[in-house]
Amino acid sequence: MKRRDEFTTRENLADEQFLLQLNAGGELGAICCAIRSIVADQCKIAKEKIYPGDDTQVLSLLMKDWDVMTFVLKAEEVLKIEIDEKKVPPFTRAGIFGFTINDGPENFGRWCLDVAGRICDPD
Fold first, then answer.
1. pLDDT at 103 over 80
2. pLDDT for res 68
3. Predicted local distance difference test score (pLDDT) of residue 32
4. Cα–Cα distances in Å, from 31 out to 5, 84, 113, 120?
5. What is the percent of the chain with per-residue pLDDT over 90, rounded to a whole number?
6. Backbone angles phi, psi at 23, to 5 degrees
7. 59-91 pLDDT per residue, tens
8. Where residue 46 falls among pLDDT bands split at 50, 70, 90?
9. What is the distance in angstroms between the CA of the first residue and the CA of the last residue of the chain?
10. Torsion angle, alpha carbons of 79, 81, 87, 89, to 10
11. Handedness of CA 78, 63, 104, 3 (dihedral sign)
12. Number of other residues whose CB lies within 10 A of the CB of residue 90
């Protein structure tokens, strides 16, 4: 698949650089790294191939199917916490009959920070 090749052939981005670009550290940074790893696993690519600026719509094409419950269950397992799936924002833009229901995140980094922030501060 050509799209997958675009990711697999790009330079690796280490977790440290990923977190620097997100300006995330501490607990937030650790959660962002876990989220990146989970999404990479769902995309079947190395986590180092996912950059903060990546379009989630494009990443979703690498997945068999984006399923928020699959993500939540894996995140709960990895982070050893409970996560309310209703608090996970949409990963991609959604629409029906040509009308946009939600715009989706600006990019993977924004989505990752949003999810991590909701996990750190669940209320």
1. no
2. 86
3. 97
4. 27, 15, 9, 8
5. 60
6. 60, 45
7. 988 988 778 889 999 999 999 999 988 888 888
8. very high
9. 41
10. 10
11. positive
12. 15
Tell me which amino acid residue 109 is. G
Cα distances (Å, whole numbers) of residue 17 to 11, 23, 51: 12, 10, 9
Task: For residues 65 and 54, give the distance between their C-alpha atoms in angstroms, rounded to a whole number.
Answer: 18
Break the chain into its structural domains and give their ranges. 2-120
8 Å CB contact between 118 and 87: yes
DSSP characters for 90-119?
Answer: PSS-EEETTEEEE---SSHHHHHHHHHHHH
pLDDT bin (cut points 50, 70, 90) of residue 1 is: low
The residue with tokens 């991609």 is 92
- Please count the residues of the chain: 123
Pairing, β 94-96 against β 99-102: antiparallel
